[in-house]
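Co-fold these.
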Amino acid sequence: MQKRSMYNEKIHVWGRISLAFAIISFASYPVLASIIFGVWPNGRLIIQGLLAVAPVYWTVGAIEAFTFGPMLGSGGAYLGFVTGNLTAMKVPAALRAMQIADVEPNTEEGEVISTIAIAVSSIVTTLILFFGMLLLNMLSPLLESELLAPAFANILPALFGALGIVFLAKNWRIAIAPIVLMLTVFLIQPSLASMVSILIPISAAFTIGVTRLLYKKHLV
Amino acid sequence: MPFSVNSPILFILAGIVIAYVLGQSIFFLVKAWRRAIELGIEKKVLRKIASGSALFTVAPAVAVLLGLISLSRFLGLPLPWLRLSVLGALTYELPAAASVATIIDLPLDQPVTDASTYLSIAYVMTLGILAGILIILFFQKRMQQSLQKLKKKDNRWSALLMDALFMGMIATFLGMVFADIRSGLRGWIPVFVMLFSASVMLLIGILIRKCKIAWLENYAMPLSMLSAMAFAVPLTNWIGG
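Predicted complex below.
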Protein backbone atom coordinates (compact mmCIF):
# COMPACT_ATOMS: atom_id res chain seq x y z
CA MET A 1 0.00 0.00 0.00
CA GLN A 2 2.89 2.28 0.96
CA LYS A 3 4.59 1.54 -2.36
CA ARG A 4 1.33 2.06 -4.21
CA SER A 5 0.87 5.58 -2.90
CA MET A 6 4.57 6.29 -3.51
CA TYR A 7 4.23 5.44 -7.22
CA ASN A 8 1.09 7.53 -7.39
CA GLU A 9 2.82 10.50 -5.81
CA LYS A 10 5.94 10.10 -7.94
CA ILE A 11 4.02 9.91 -11.19
CA HIS A 12 2.60 13.39 -10.48
CA VAL A 13 6.05 14.77 -9.66
CA TRP A 14 7.62 13.24 -12.79
CA GLY A 15 4.62 14.21 -14.87
CA ARG A 16 4.52 17.83 -13.76
CA ILE A 17 8.26 18.39 -14.08
CA SER A 18 8.48 16.75 -17.52
CA LEU A 19 5.36 18.59 -18.68
CA ALA A 20 6.74 21.96 -17.56
CA PHE A 21 10.00 21.28 -19.42
CA ALA A 22 8.04 20.12 -22.46
CA ILE A 23 6.06 23.40 -22.54
CA ILE A 24 9.31 25.37 -22.27
CA SER A 25 10.91 23.31 -25.06
CA PHE A 26 7.87 23.76 -27.35
CA ALA A 27 8.00 27.51 -26.83
CA SER A 28 11.77 27.58 -27.33
CA TYR A 29 11.48 26.60 -31.02
CA PRO A 30 10.05 29.91 -32.27
CA VAL A 31 11.99 31.95 -29.68
CA LEU A 32 15.38 30.42 -30.57
CA ALA A 33 14.58 30.60 -34.29
CA SER A 34 13.86 34.34 -33.86
CA ILE A 35 17.21 34.86 -32.13
CA ILE A 36 19.14 32.77 -34.67
CA PHE A 37 17.66 34.47 -37.76
CA GLY A 38 17.59 37.87 -36.07
CA VAL A 39 13.97 38.32 -37.12
CA TRP A 40 10.96 38.77 -34.84
CA PRO A 41 7.41 37.69 -35.52
CA ASN A 42 4.66 40.07 -36.50
CA GLY A 43 2.66 40.71 -33.29
CA ARG A 44 -0.45 41.79 -35.18
CA LEU A 45 -0.40 38.56 -37.22
CA ILE A 46 -0.02 36.46 -34.07
CA ILE A 47 -2.96 38.18 -32.36
CA GLN A 48 -5.14 37.95 -35.48
CA GLY A 49 -4.15 34.32 -36.03
CA LEU A 50 -4.81 33.44 -32.39
CA LEU A 51 -8.18 35.23 -32.43
CA ALA A 52 -9.15 32.97 -35.34
CA VAL A 53 -8.17 29.66 -33.74
CA ALA A 54 -7.61 30.06 -29.99
CA PRO A 55 -11.27 30.39 -28.83
CA VAL A 56 -12.05 27.01 -30.40
CA TYR A 57 -8.69 25.33 -29.66
CA TRP A 58 -8.57 26.43 -26.02
CA THR A 59 -12.16 25.29 -25.47
CA VAL A 60 -11.47 21.94 -27.17
CA GLY A 61 -8.15 21.60 -25.30
CA ALA A 62 -9.86 22.18 -21.95
CA ILE A 63 -12.64 19.75 -22.82
CA GLU A 64 -10.13 17.11 -23.97
CA ALA A 65 -8.12 17.50 -20.75
CA PHE A 66 -11.16 16.99 -18.51
CA THR A 67 -12.51 14.11 -20.65
CA PHE A 68 -9.34 12.20 -21.54
CA GLY A 69 -7.39 12.93 -18.32
CA PRO A 70 -9.51 10.53 -16.22
CA MET A 71 -9.66 7.96 -19.05
CA LEU A 72 -5.90 7.70 -19.51
CA GLY A 73 -4.84 7.79 -15.87
CA SER A 74 -2.15 10.17 -14.64
CA GLY A 75 0.95 8.69 -16.32
CA GLY A 76 -0.96 8.26 -19.57
CA ALA A 77 -2.39 11.78 -19.41
CA TYR A 78 0.95 13.48 -18.67
CA LEU A 79 2.52 11.65 -21.58
CA GLY A 80 -0.46 11.64 -23.96
CA PHE A 81 -1.00 15.39 -23.81
CA VAL A 82 2.68 16.04 -24.58
CA THR A 83 2.83 13.60 -27.48
CA GLY A 84 -0.51 14.64 -29.01
CA ASN A 85 -2.72 12.81 -31.53
CA LEU A 86 -5.07 11.82 -28.72
CA THR A 87 -8.42 10.94 -30.31
CA ALA A 88 -7.23 8.89 -33.28
CA MET A 89 -4.22 7.28 -31.64
CA LYS A 90 -3.35 7.55 -27.94
CA VAL A 91 -6.82 7.13 -26.40
CA PRO A 92 -7.74 4.11 -28.60
CA ALA A 93 -4.29 2.59 -27.95
CA ALA A 94 -4.79 2.90 -24.19
CA LEU A 95 -8.35 1.56 -24.39
CA ARG A 96 -7.29 -1.42 -26.46
CA ALA A 97 -4.38 -2.21 -24.14
CA MET A 98 -6.53 -2.09 -20.97
CA GLN A 99 -9.11 -4.32 -22.60
CA ILE A 100 -6.51 -6.91 -23.69
CA ALA A 101 -4.75 -6.88 -20.31
CA ASP A 102 -8.17 -7.20 -18.66
CA VAL A 103 -7.60 -4.29 -16.30
CA GLU A 104 -9.97 -1.46 -15.42
CA PRO A 105 -9.31 2.24 -15.88
CA ASN A 106 -9.02 4.23 -12.63
CA THR A 107 -7.00 1.40 -11.04
CA GLU A 108 -3.23 1.33 -10.68
CA GLU A 109 -3.05 -1.67 -13.04
CA GLY A 110 -5.09 0.24 -15.61
CA GLU A 111 -2.88 3.27 -15.15
CA VAL A 112 0.41 1.44 -15.84
CA ILE A 113 -1.00 -0.46 -18.83
CA SER A 114 -2.38 2.77 -20.30
CA THR A 115 0.99 4.49 -19.77
CA ILE A 116 2.87 1.62 -21.48
CA ALA A 117 0.50 1.69 -24.48
CA ILE A 118 0.77 5.48 -24.86
CA ALA A 119 4.56 5.47 -24.45
CA VAL A 120 5.03 2.72 -27.07
CA SER A 121 2.56 4.44 -29.39
CA SER A 122 4.38 7.76 -29.16
CA ILE A 123 7.82 6.14 -29.64
CA VAL A 124 6.57 4.31 -32.76
CA THR A 125 4.98 7.50 -34.13
CA THR A 126 8.21 9.44 -33.59
CA LEU A 127 10.22 6.76 -35.38
CA ILE A 128 7.78 6.48 -38.29
CA LEU A 129 7.77 10.26 -38.76
CA PHE A 130 11.56 10.41 -38.54
CA PHE A 131 12.19 7.65 -41.07
CA GLY A 132 9.23 8.78 -43.15
CA MET A 133 10.80 12.23 -43.36
CA LEU A 134 14.18 10.78 -44.35
CA LEU A 135 12.54 8.70 -47.08
CA LEU A 136 10.04 11.37 -48.06
CA ASN A 137 10.98 11.53 -51.72
CA MET A 138 10.57 7.80 -52.03
CA LEU A 139 7.38 7.53 -49.96
CA SER A 140 5.47 10.60 -51.14
CA PRO A 141 4.32 9.18 -54.50
CA LEU A 142 3.11 5.98 -52.83
CA LEU A 143 1.40 7.60 -49.82
CA GLU A 144 -0.20 10.31 -51.90
CA SER A 145 -1.28 7.96 -54.69
CA GLU A 146 -4.93 8.02 -55.69
CA LEU A 147 -5.06 4.27 -55.12
CA LEU A 148 -4.38 4.55 -51.38
CA ALA A 149 -6.37 7.76 -50.80
CA PRO A 150 -9.64 5.96 -49.86
CA ALA A 151 -7.78 3.85 -47.26
CA PHE A 152 -6.44 6.91 -45.43
CA ALA A 153 -9.73 8.79 -45.83
CA ASN A 154 -11.45 6.00 -43.88
CA ILE A 155 -9.03 5.57 -41.00
CA LEU A 156 -11.53 6.77 -38.35
CA PRO A 157 -14.45 4.53 -39.42
CA ALA A 158 -11.99 1.60 -39.56
CA LEU A 159 -10.70 2.38 -36.07
CA PHE A 160 -14.00 3.10 -34.34
CA GLY A 161 -15.84 0.20 -36.01
CA ALA A 162 -13.46 -2.26 -34.32
CA LEU A 163 -13.34 -0.36 -31.03
CA GLY A 164 -17.11 0.22 -31.00
CA ILE A 165 -18.01 -3.45 -31.32
CA VAL A 166 -15.73 -4.30 -28.36
CA PHE A 167 -17.46 -1.77 -26.11
CA LEU A 168 -20.91 -2.67 -27.41
CA ALA A 169 -20.22 -6.28 -26.49
CA LYS A 170 -18.92 -5.23 -23.09
CA ASN A 171 -21.90 -3.16 -22.03
CA TRP A 172 -24.51 -2.66 -24.74
CA ARG A 173 -27.07 -1.22 -22.35
CA ILE A 174 -25.11 1.99 -21.80
CA ALA A 175 -24.19 2.22 -25.50
CA ILE A 176 -27.66 2.49 -27.03
CA ALA A 177 -28.67 5.97 -25.85
CA PRO A 178 -25.46 7.85 -26.85
CA ILE A 179 -25.30 6.10 -30.23
CA VAL A 180 -28.93 7.03 -30.96
CA LEU A 181 -28.27 10.61 -29.81
CA MET A 182 -25.13 11.03 -31.93
CA LEU A 183 -26.74 9.41 -34.97
CA THR A 184 -29.64 11.85 -34.68
CA VAL A 185 -27.31 14.83 -34.22
CA PHE A 186 -25.20 14.00 -37.28
CA LEU A 187 -28.18 13.12 -39.46
CA ILE A 188 -29.84 16.44 -38.64
CA GLN A 189 -26.65 18.52 -38.86
CA PRO A 190 -23.87 16.72 -40.86
CA SER A 191 -21.61 19.80 -40.76
CA LEU A 192 -21.03 19.13 -37.04
CA ALA A 193 -18.49 16.49 -38.15
CA SER A 194 -15.91 19.28 -38.12
CA MET A 195 -16.68 19.98 -34.44
CA VAL A 196 -16.40 16.42 -33.20
CA SER A 197 -14.08 17.38 -30.31
CA ILE A 198 -16.77 19.61 -28.83
CA LEU A 199 -19.40 16.90 -29.20
CA ILE A 200 -17.34 14.26 -27.33
CA PRO A 201 -17.87 15.77 -23.84
CA ILE A 202 -21.55 16.41 -24.60
CA SER A 203 -21.96 12.77 -25.58
CA ALA A 204 -19.87 11.65 -22.56
CA ALA A 205 -21.96 13.76 -20.13
CA PHE A 206 -25.17 12.41 -21.69
CA THR A 207 -23.88 8.80 -21.42
CA ILE A 208 -22.90 9.35 -17.78
CA GLY A 209 -26.41 10.70 -17.05
CA VAL A 210 -28.14 7.76 -18.75
CA THR A 211 -25.78 5.25 -17.10
CA ARG A 212 -26.49 6.79 -13.69
CA LEU A 213 -30.21 6.41 -14.31
CA LEU A 214 -29.79 2.76 -15.39
CA TYR A 215 -27.54 2.13 -12.37
CA LYS A 216 -30.11 3.59 -9.96
CA LYS A 217 -32.76 1.34 -11.50
CA HIS A 218 -30.38 -1.69 -11.23
CA LEU A 219 -30.40 -2.18 -15.01
CA VAL A 220 -26.60 -2.18 -15.41
CA MET B 1 21.89 33.57 -41.11
CA PRO B 2 19.66 33.54 -44.21
CA PHE B 3 16.18 32.14 -43.59
CA SER B 4 14.76 29.05 -45.24
CA VAL B 5 11.86 26.88 -44.08
CA ASN B 6 14.21 23.90 -44.40
CA SER B 7 17.23 25.52 -42.76
CA PRO B 8 19.51 22.92 -41.06
CA ILE B 9 19.35 24.87 -37.80
CA LEU B 10 15.54 24.44 -37.72
CA PHE B 11 16.03 20.68 -38.10
CA ILE B 12 18.41 20.77 -35.13
CA LEU B 13 15.97 22.79 -32.98
CA ALA B 14 13.06 20.50 -33.84
CA GLY B 15 15.26 17.42 -33.33
CA ILE B 16 16.25 18.53 -29.80
CA VAL B 17 12.61 19.00 -28.75
CA ILE B 18 11.57 15.68 -30.30
CA ALA B 19 14.51 13.91 -28.63
CA TYR B 20 13.41 15.34 -25.26
CA VAL B 21 9.84 14.05 -25.71
CA LEU B 22 11.16 10.69 -26.95
CA GLY B 23 13.26 10.51 -23.77
CA GLN B 24 10.16 11.36 -21.71
CA SER B 25 8.24 8.51 -23.40
CA ILE B 26 11.05 6.05 -22.68
CA PHE B 27 11.26 7.25 -19.05
CA PHE B 28 7.52 6.76 -18.46
CA LEU B 29 7.61 3.42 -20.28
CA VAL B 30 10.39 2.11 -18.00
CA LYS B 31 8.72 3.40 -14.81
CA ALA B 32 5.30 2.00 -15.74
CA TRP B 33 6.83 -1.32 -16.85
CA ARG B 34 8.66 -1.74 -13.52
CA ARG B 35 5.55 -0.81 -11.56
CA ALA B 36 3.47 -3.26 -13.61
CA ILE B 37 5.86 -6.09 -12.67
CA GLU B 38 5.67 -5.05 -8.99
CA LEU B 39 1.88 -5.21 -9.29
CA GLY B 40 2.17 -8.81 -10.48
CA ILE B 41 1.38 -8.28 -14.16
CA GLU B 42 3.29 -10.91 -16.14
CA LYS B 43 6.09 -9.85 -18.49
CA LYS B 44 4.38 -11.89 -21.19
CA VAL B 45 1.29 -9.70 -20.92
CA LEU B 46 3.37 -6.52 -20.94
CA ARG B 47 5.25 -7.61 -24.05
CA LYS B 48 1.92 -8.39 -25.69
CA ILE B 49 0.61 -4.93 -24.80
CA ALA B 50 3.76 -3.23 -26.11
CA SER B 51 3.93 -5.14 -29.40
CA GLY B 52 0.18 -4.76 -29.98
CA SER B 53 0.32 -1.02 -29.27
CA ALA B 54 3.24 -0.65 -31.69
CA LEU B 55 1.41 -2.51 -34.43
CA PHE B 56 -1.84 -0.65 -33.77
CA THR B 57 -0.03 2.69 -34.11
CA VAL B 58 1.39 2.05 -37.59
CA ALA B 59 -1.69 2.96 -39.66
CA PRO B 60 -2.58 6.19 -37.75
CA ALA B 61 1.12 7.17 -37.75
CA VAL B 62 1.34 6.77 -41.52
CA ALA B 63 -1.73 9.01 -41.76
CA VAL B 64 0.17 11.57 -39.63
CA LEU B 65 3.07 11.24 -42.07
CA LEU B 66 0.66 12.17 -44.86
CA GLY B 67 -0.21 15.29 -42.85
CA LEU B 68 3.49 16.09 -42.56
CA ILE B 69 3.83 15.86 -46.34
CA SER B 70 0.94 18.25 -46.93
CA LEU B 71 2.11 20.80 -44.34
CA SER B 72 5.72 20.61 -45.57
CA ARG B 73 4.79 22.24 -48.89
CA PHE B 74 3.96 25.40 -47.00
CA LEU B 75 6.09 25.27 -43.85
CA GLY B 76 9.04 23.11 -44.92
CA LEU B 77 9.88 19.94 -42.98
CA PRO B 78 11.20 20.91 -39.52
CA LEU B 79 8.14 22.72 -38.11
CA PRO B 80 5.53 20.12 -39.24
CA TRP B 81 7.92 17.35 -38.13
CA LEU B 82 8.05 18.93 -34.68
CA ARG B 83 4.35 19.74 -34.39
CA LEU B 84 3.15 16.34 -35.58
CA SER B 85 5.72 14.32 -33.59
CA VAL B 86 4.76 16.01 -30.34
CA LEU B 87 1.72 17.82 -28.96
CA GLY B 88 -0.19 18.44 -32.16
CA ALA B 89 -2.41 16.75 -34.69
CA LEU B 90 -3.03 17.72 -38.30
CA THR B 91 -6.59 18.79 -37.40
CA TYR B 92 -5.08 21.55 -35.22
CA GLU B 93 -1.93 22.45 -37.07
CA LEU B 94 -3.32 22.96 -40.56
CA PRO B 95 -6.10 25.40 -39.55
CA ALA B 96 -3.67 27.27 -37.26
CA ALA B 97 -1.18 27.76 -40.12
CA ALA B 98 -4.00 28.49 -42.57
CA SER B 99 -5.48 31.18 -40.30
CA VAL B 100 -2.29 33.25 -40.52
CA ALA B 101 -1.85 32.51 -44.24
CA THR B 102 -5.39 33.72 -44.97
CA ILE B 103 -4.81 37.04 -43.19
CA ILE B 104 -1.89 37.92 -45.47
CA ASP B 105 -3.17 36.07 -48.53
CA LEU B 106 -0.41 33.45 -48.70
CA PRO B 107 -0.90 30.34 -50.85
CA LEU B 108 -0.74 27.10 -48.83
CA ASP B 109 1.01 25.15 -51.59
CA GLN B 110 4.20 27.23 -51.71
CA PRO B 111 6.95 27.56 -49.08
CA VAL B 112 6.86 30.62 -46.83
CA THR B 113 9.79 32.84 -47.74
CA ASP B 114 9.42 35.56 -45.12
CA ALA B 115 11.01 34.67 -41.76
CA SER B 116 8.73 36.95 -39.75
CA THR B 117 5.60 35.32 -41.21
CA TYR B 118 7.03 31.85 -40.59
CA LEU B 119 7.77 32.72 -36.96
CA SER B 120 4.30 34.25 -36.51
CA ILE B 121 2.78 30.97 -37.75
CA ALA B 122 5.04 28.99 -35.39
CA TYR B 123 3.89 31.15 -32.43
CA VAL B 124 0.19 30.75 -33.35
CA MET B 125 0.65 26.98 -33.63
CA THR B 126 2.43 26.85 -30.27
CA LEU B 127 0.17 29.17 -28.28
CA GLY B 128 -3.02 27.90 -29.88
CA ILE B 129 -2.69 24.40 -28.54
CA LEU B 130 -1.39 24.85 -25.00
CA ALA B 131 -4.74 24.85 -23.12
CA GLY B 132 -5.07 21.07 -22.72
CA ILE B 133 -1.50 20.53 -21.58
CA LEU B 134 -1.74 23.39 -19.03
CA ILE B 135 -4.93 21.94 -17.54
CA ILE B 136 -3.28 18.52 -17.22
CA LEU B 137 -0.27 20.18 -15.59
CA PHE B 138 -2.36 21.92 -12.93
CA PHE B 139 -5.46 19.73 -12.50
CA GLN B 140 -4.59 16.09 -13.32
CA LYS B 141 -3.65 15.29 -9.71
CA ARG B 142 -6.90 16.75 -8.39
CA MET B 143 -8.93 14.89 -11.04
CA GLN B 144 -7.29 11.60 -10.10
CA GLN B 145 -7.87 12.21 -6.37
CA SER B 146 -11.57 12.89 -7.00
CA LEU B 147 -11.87 9.66 -9.00
CA GLN B 148 -10.11 7.68 -6.26
CA LYS B 149 -12.52 9.10 -3.66
CA LEU B 150 -15.46 8.14 -5.83
CA LYS B 151 -14.03 4.64 -6.24
CA LYS B 152 -13.74 4.18 -2.49
CA LYS B 153 -17.31 5.37 -2.03
CA ASP B 154 -18.91 3.27 -4.80
CA ASN B 155 -16.63 0.94 -6.73
CA ARG B 156 -19.30 -0.31 -9.16
CA TRP B 157 -20.44 3.19 -10.10
CA SER B 158 -16.83 4.30 -10.52
CA ALA B 159 -16.24 1.49 -13.09
CA LEU B 160 -19.48 2.31 -14.88
CA LEU B 161 -18.56 5.98 -14.98
CA MET B 162 -15.34 5.16 -16.84
CA ASP B 163 -17.21 2.89 -19.26
CA ALA B 164 -19.71 5.71 -19.85
CA LEU B 165 -16.88 8.18 -20.59
CA PHE B 166 -15.37 5.79 -23.15
CA MET B 167 -18.74 4.97 -24.67
CA GLY B 168 -19.56 8.67 -24.99
CA MET B 169 -16.42 9.19 -27.04
CA ILE B 170 -16.91 6.11 -29.20
CA ALA B 171 -20.60 6.96 -29.83
CA THR B 172 -19.61 10.39 -31.12
CA PHE B 173 -17.33 8.89 -33.76
CA LEU B 174 -19.83 6.17 -34.64
CA GLY B 175 -22.45 8.89 -35.19
CA MET B 176 -20.00 10.99 -37.21
CA VAL B 177 -19.51 8.11 -39.65
CA PHE B 178 -23.15 8.61 -40.73
CA ALA B 179 -22.77 12.37 -41.30
CA ASP B 180 -22.62 12.14 -45.12
CA ILE B 181 -25.21 9.46 -45.85
CA ARG B 182 -27.66 11.98 -47.24
CA SER B 183 -25.22 12.75 -50.06
CA GLY B 184 -26.03 9.39 -51.71
CA LEU B 185 -24.30 6.02 -51.91
CA ARG B 186 -20.86 7.68 -51.75
CA GLY B 187 -21.72 8.98 -48.28
CA TRP B 188 -22.31 5.42 -47.12
CA ILE B 189 -18.68 4.39 -47.77
CA PRO B 190 -17.50 5.22 -44.21
CA VAL B 191 -20.51 3.32 -42.82
CA PHE B 192 -19.63 0.21 -44.85
CA VAL B 193 -15.98 0.51 -43.80
CA MET B 194 -17.01 0.79 -40.14
CA LEU B 195 -19.30 -2.25 -40.46
CA PHE B 196 -16.54 -4.21 -42.21
CA SER B 197 -14.09 -3.37 -39.43
CA ALA B 198 -16.63 -4.35 -36.74
CA SER B 199 -17.38 -7.63 -38.58
CA VAL B 200 -13.68 -8.55 -38.82
CA MET B 201 -13.31 -7.78 -35.10
CA LEU B 202 -16.33 -9.96 -34.36
CA LEU B 203 -14.96 -12.79 -36.52
CA ILE B 204 -11.58 -12.62 -34.79
CA GLY B 205 -13.38 -12.63 -31.42
CA ILE B 206 -15.19 -15.82 -32.43
CA LEU B 207 -11.92 -17.41 -33.61
CA ILE B 208 -10.26 -16.52 -30.31
CA ARG B 209 -13.08 -17.96 -28.21
CA LYS B 210 -14.30 -20.94 -30.24
CA CYS B 211 -11.04 -22.05 -31.88
CA LYS B 212 -8.84 -21.02 -28.91
CA ILE B 213 -6.45 -18.97 -31.08
CA ALA B 214 -5.33 -16.77 -28.17
CA TRP B 215 -2.40 -15.08 -29.99
CA LEU B 216 -4.86 -13.41 -32.36
CA GLU B 217 -6.16 -11.22 -29.53
CA ASN B 218 -3.17 -8.92 -29.73
CA TYR B 219 -3.61 -8.40 -33.46
CA ALA B 220 -7.40 -8.12 -33.50
CA MET B 221 -7.55 -4.31 -33.57
CA PRO B 222 -4.74 -3.69 -36.12
CA LEU B 223 -6.04 -6.49 -38.35
CA SER B 224 -9.63 -5.20 -38.25
CA MET B 225 -8.47 -1.67 -38.92
CA LEU B 226 -6.06 -2.44 -41.74
CA SER B 227 -8.42 -4.86 -43.49
CA ALA B 228 -11.22 -2.26 -43.32
CA MET B 229 -8.88 0.41 -44.74
CA ALA B 230 -7.92 -2.01 -47.54
CA PHE B 231 -11.62 -2.75 -48.11
CA ALA B 232 -12.22 1.00 -48.59
CA VAL B 233 -10.05 1.00 -51.74
CA PRO B 234 -12.10 -1.35 -54.01
CA LEU B 235 -15.32 -0.16 -52.38
CA THR B 236 -14.59 3.48 -53.24
CA ASN B 237 -13.54 2.54 -56.77
CA TRP B 238 -16.74 0.54 -57.20
CA ILE B 239 -19.10 3.15 -55.77
CA GLY B 240 -17.13 6.02 -57.25
CA GLY B 241 -15.88 8.24 -54.40
